[in-house]
Design a protein that fits this description.
With about 1050 residues, the protein is α+β, with helices and mostly antiparallel strands. Helix content is about 30%, strand content about 25%. It has eight domains: about 50 residues, Laminin; about 50 residues, Laminin (Ribbon), CATH 2.10.25.10; about 45 residues, Laminin, CATH 2.10.25.10; about 45 residues, Ribbon (Laminin); about 50 residues, Laminin; about 40 residues, Laminin (Ribbon); about 280 residues, Chondroitinase Ac, Chain A, domain 3 (Sandwich); about 260 residues, Rhopdopsin 7-helix transmembrane proteins. Strands 44, 45, 48, 49, 50, 52, 53 and 56 form an eight-stranded antiparallel sheet that branches. Strands 46-47-51-55-54 form a five-stranded antiparallel sheet. Belongs to the G-protein coupled receptor 2 family. Adhesion G-protein coupled receptor (ADGR) subfamily.
Length: about 1050
């Protein structure tokens, strides 16, 4: 209801508004603007409903300041726009205010495009721009240039003109004498000038006219420009601005040279020889030449120095030239000639006393060839040029001197010299004997002459040595002395029958030559810092040994030496030495303990039977006296839980002389640094000697006097306590320390295990040794027989694989889809076995070993994947068997199989390398790491393939059995049933199912499984060759054809039996 009322109200309001509007429009509106006086002058009236308003026009402003106004009293006042800032007309203009507007005019020199008198309201925009008066011609007078300026212009005289009374007049530059350079003439011209060089001069720039500074007029050298300007035989002389001509010496011209008539100047030769008197003087000949003359003296005369001006000839002295006469001749000058005579002791070659001319020589007279000789007896005459020289023979002398020359004073006579009267004539250790004209020296006893020197006779260099074996011969001056080597002592009897007897133990000198690490630490040698602690212990050991070796006449205290060695062992066990250093130090310690013990046996009174115990070692020693008189007497020695048993027969066999002693030593802690890493089994090749072993006993040592140390008839029994209880799968090895193997290694030669319990191991040795027990894990230990079996089997397999590969490639009649599968498997097996045989033990290069392991991983995986392909293809062939001798299978392209057989193994190896690259290569063989689980990258795929192949092969045999039983009676009664069964069984080995034996090499069956695994799998290549080649009828026919070189008839059937290997080879492929 209320909404209806609201709508009704809104309607009434609208009607009311419409009525009121209509009434208002009916009223009459009054227009106040109709009266022109309503608004003041210069105002505009605007009518509004019911009113009006006024507004001032443009250019005016209301007096009350309001824009809209009305009523009287208000006027419109003119606005002065020109007084505004900035002025409305712009720059360069004049603003003039007008009533209601303004007028703009430009300044003189300016104009506007809208006109010069522009009034507000006119069209366009007023802008004053500069007028360029210079664009009009005739603005400036002649010789002036116009320059426009803002609102005006100016006139400037051109260069060379000057303004005078508003007129540009020419400047006379020549009025200034400095305008042109020297030797130039100035020429004035309107507005300019020019300089011209005078005759005989030219500008430095080569211009004819000069203008401006910087150029000069230089003299023209006419003589240099024209060498013939003056004519022949003349001289041109340049002077400033000109030149002059004159004749050369020896020439003249009848006319004087003038620049006006140069052609009259001609130079002709002057004949000086026609003058009287002659310019050359007497005794001469004058020869005229062109422009000169020459003088030549007559024969027998020569010119005086001084030139042609005072040339004179004088007599020639031929003897002044030393070559006029020959050598050893005298020259005599005569008037106009000369002659030569030979000097004393010479004769002319032509026999004429006075001679001249070439070809004659003076020959020496040989006085020494005269008879008798001029020098007398016991002398030597030596001919010299022109005379002779006398010298006494060696051993003679003359009162006139030994070298007397003819012409010297005195008489030359040679007499004998007694050289033995002078001291020091003979060398040391020699006596002098005088002879006629000489002497001789004879060596004293014990010396021998050599190169005129008495040298000591080295008796020690004789062979055999005068001191006997095992001795040191020391040569002395004229004699010698003998001493024994280290480790030996002399027997009585003097040097005539000197002999040395061996000390029954080794000293330092016996140890040093055998080991370079021992030599490294000797006194005087430079020891590197890294070997400092090693050499300290080495030298400490040698100090103990030196006390026993050097003090041979004193008693060696066994107790003190044991304590010293205990200190060395304690420090060695805590040191971090290299393997070579440890081996060398251990060898020296063991030898030193043995030597000091044997040295103690030399004085049995002070070292009776005793037991010495320290923390590091324990030793029990016994002096054997009359105990061995009893029959079958055996001695027992114990130290730290270990025991040694030795019989009297062995002691007597040792050939001990003097005191007989036996000792047994047990070292505690030595096994920690002489550990299993030093073990090397010499009875087995290096390829299989890398066993998983551990040291499991203390190191013990047996010591006995006597020369014989090994090869005893009755063995020495050692009972060693196991450090850890022996496990059932562990096999103990008795090892001895051999210093001849790589400086010191544990070897198994010389000792065998008699008995092994959980706590002790009994070893039997035929030598006195340094002994220890090493435990080997049985399931990981390869016997030598297994090594031989595996290597022989692999070699046989490699040969068979080569034959099989050759057969599959060369026998084209058998080539089909399946022989290609056999070929790929044979190639992979051949490469894998060859690489395993040659590279599995190459562990010295870590990177190379890892690469070999990677290739072995890939090749063996490829073998198994091709075995899987073989198994699948065999299964498909048998499953599709329809009737006897006709089989078909679904064709699979070979490259698909190659991708599967080679690609997946490559993918597995690539992933394995990416995940764990350090898993390739081990410390003992180049194979996959078996300790970190990485081996499952191989075992995983292999076990899977073995399971699949086993299932497929079992399934295949079942299908084949059913199919063969359903064929006709003739086929079912084939004689090849046994062969078929054998080949079916051999497929287990060809397809890798026998590898499962490797998984069962644990526990008590490990040894048997190891032999089975080794024999079967090493001969896998042989199985392939036998099954696919030798037992294949088709291949047999090919072999027979090759051997007999005859072709079998094509009608002969090769399907006399159904063989497992012939199933794929006779199949039809798409």
């Amino acid at each position: 209801m209320w909404s209806f009322n609201l709508l009704l109200f809104w309607g009434y309001c609208g009607i009311f508004i419409w009525v009121m509007f209509s009434l208002e429009s009916m009223a009459v509106d009054v227009n106040e603007c109709a009266d022109t006086t309503t608004c003041p002058a210069y105002a505009k009236c605007t009518d509004t409903p019911d009113s009006y308003y006024c507004t001032c026009k443009r250019g005016f402003l209301s007096s009350n300041g309001m824009e809209q106004f009305k009523g009287p009293g208000v006027t419109c006042i003119d606005i002065d726009e020109c007084s505004q800032s900035p002025p409305p007309c712009g720059p360069n203009s004049v603003c003039r205010n007008l009533l209601g507007r303004y007028k703009c005019s430009c300044w003189p020199g300016f104009s506007s495009p809208t006109g010069n008198d522009w009034i507000l309201g006119n069209p366009g925009r007023f802008i004053c721009t500069d007028i360029n008066e210079c664009l009009s011609s005739g603005v400036c007078q002649e010789h002036a240039e116009c320059i426009n300026t803002l609102g005006s212009y100016k006139c400037r005289c051109q260069v060379g003109f000057i303004s005078h009374n508003s007129i540009c007049k020419d400047v006379d530059e020549c009025a200034d004498p400095r305008t042109c350079p020297e030797h130039a003439t100035c020429h004035n011209s309107p507005g300019s000038y020019s300089c011209v060089c005078n005759v005989g001069f030219e500008s430095s720039g080569g211009k004819e006219r000069l203008l401006g500074s910087g150029e000069i007029c230089g003299d023209v050298d006419e003589c240099a420009r024209n060498s013939t300007i003056c004519g022949l035989n003349s001289v041109c002389t340049n002077i400033l601005g000109k030149y002059n001509c004159s004749c050369l010496p020896g020439y003249f011209s009848p006319a004087v040279w003038t620049p006006e008539k140069p052609e009259d100047f001609i130079c002709t030769d002057i004949d000086e020889c026609s003058q009287d008197p002659s310019p050359c003087g007497p005794n001469s000949v004058c020869i005229n030449t062109l422009g000169s003359y020459s003088c030549r003296c007559n024969k027998g005369f020569r010119p005086n120095p001084g030139g042609s001006s005072n040339f004179t000839c004088q007599n020639v002295n031929e003897c002044a030239d030393t070559t006029t006469c020959p050598a050893y001749a005298k020259c005599t000058d005569t008037l106009d000639s000369y002659y030569c005579t030979c000097k004393r002791g010479f004769l002319p070659s032509n026999g004429v006393k006075q001679f001249k001319g070439p070809g004659v020589t003076c020959i020496d007279i040989d006085e020494c060839s005269q008879s008798p000789p001029p020098c007398g007896p016991n002398s030597v005459c030596e001919n010299i040029l022109g005379r002779y020289k006398c010298s006494c023979l060696p051993g003679f002398s003359s009162p006139t001197g030994n070298d007397w020359i003819l012409g010297n004073p005195g008489r030359f006579i040679c007499t004998d010299i007694n050289e033995c009267l002078s001291s020091g004539v003979c060398q040391g250790h020699a006596e002098c004997i005088n002879t006629l004209g000489s002497y001789k020296c004879r060596c004293q006893v014990g010396f021998i002459a050599h190169n005129s020197i008495c040298e000591d006779i080295d008796e020690c260099s004789q062979d055999p040595s005068p001191c006997g074996p095992n001795s040191v011969c020391t040569n002395t001056l004229g004699s010698y002395s003998c001493s024994c080597l280290e480790g030996f002592r002399p027997n009585a009897g003097g040097s005539l029958n000197f002999t040395c007897k061996r000390i029954p133990f080794k000293c330092k000198e016996d140890v040093i030559p055998d080991n370079e690490w021992v030599q490294l630490c000797q006194v005087g040698a430079a020891v590197e810092r890294e070997h400092g602690s090693f050499c300290t212990l080495m030298n400490a050991t040698f100090n103990v040994l030196d006390d026993a070796c050097e003090n041979r006449n004193t008693v060696v205290s066994l107790k003190s030496t044991v304590e010293s060695f205990a200190s060395v062992l304690e420090q060695t066990s805590t040191s971090n030495f290299t393997k070579e250093e440890t081996s060398a130090l251990a060898t020296v310690v063991l030898e030193s303990v043995k030597s000091t013990t044997l040295a103690a046996f030399l004085k049995p009174s002070a070292n009776v039977s005793q037991t010495i115990q320290t923390e590091q070692l324990e030793i029990e020693s016994k002096i054997i006296k009359e105990e061995c008189n009893e029959e079958n007497m055996t001695f027992h020695f114990k130290a730290k839980g270990d025991e040694m048993k030795i019989g009297c027969s062995t002691i007597e066999e040792s050939k001990s002389t003097g005191t007989t002693g036996v000792a047994f030593v047990s070292f505690l802690g030595m096994e920690s640094f002489l550990d299993e890493s030093f073990f090397q089994d010499q009875q087995m090749p290096s390829a299989i000697s890398q066993r998983k072993v551990k040291m499991n006993s203390r190191v013990v040592q047996g010591i006995m006097t006597g020369e014989k140390k090994d090869g005893f008839s009755d063995p020495i029994i050692y009972t060693l306590e196991n450090i850890e209880p022996k496990q059932e799968f562990e096999r103990p090895i008795c090892v001895s320390w051999d210093t001849n193997v790589e400086g010191g290694r544990w070897t198994s030669s010389g000792c065998v295990v008699l008995e092994a319990s959980e706590t002790h191991t009994v070893c039997s040795c035929n030598q006195m040794v340094n002994l220890a027990i090493i435990m080997a894990y049985g399931e990981l230990t390869m016997d030598f027989s297994l090594y031989i079996i595996s290597h022989v089997g692999m070699i046989i397999s490699l040969v068979c694989l080569v034959l099989a590969i050759t057969t599959f490639i060369l026998c084209r009649s058998i080539q089909n889809h399946n022989t290609y599968l056999h070929l790929h498997l044979c190639v992979c097996l051949f490469l894998a076995k060859a690489l395993f045989l040659t590279g599995v033990d190459k562990i010295h290069n870590k990177m190379g070993c890892a690469i070999i392991a990677g290739f072995l991983h890939y090749l063996y995986l490829a073998c198994f994947f091709w075995m899987l392909i073989e198994a699948v293809m065999l299964f498909l062939m048998v499953r599709n068997l329809k009737v006897v001798n006709y089989f078909s299978s679904r064709h699979i392209k070979m490259w698909y199989l190659c991708v599967f057989g080679y690609g997946i193994p490559g993918l597995v190896v690539a992933v394995s390398v990416g995940v764990q690259p350090q898993g390739y290569g081990m410390h003992n063989r180049c194979w996959l790491n078996t300790e970190t689980g990485f081996i499952w990258s191989f075992l995983g795929p292999v076990c899977t393939i073995i399971v699949i192949n086993s299932i497929l092969l079992t399934w295949t045999l079942c299908i084949l059995r059913q199919k063969l039983s359903s064929v006709n009676t003739e086929v079912s009664k084939l004689k090849d049933n046994r062969l078929l069964t054998c080949k079916a069984f051999a497929q287990l080995f060809i397809l890798g199912c026998s590898w499962v034996l490797g998984i069962f090499q644990i526990g008590s069956m490990a040894r048997i499984m190891a032999y089975l695994f080794t024999i079967i799998n090493s001969l896998q290549g042989a199985f392939i060759f036998i099954i696919h080649c030798l037992l294949n009828r088709q291949v047999q026919e090919e072999y027979r054809r090759c051997l007999t070189r005859k072709i079998k008839p094509s009608s002969e059937s090769h399907t006399s039996g159904i063989l497992l290997s012939s199933v794929p080879s006779t199949s039809k492929t798409d």
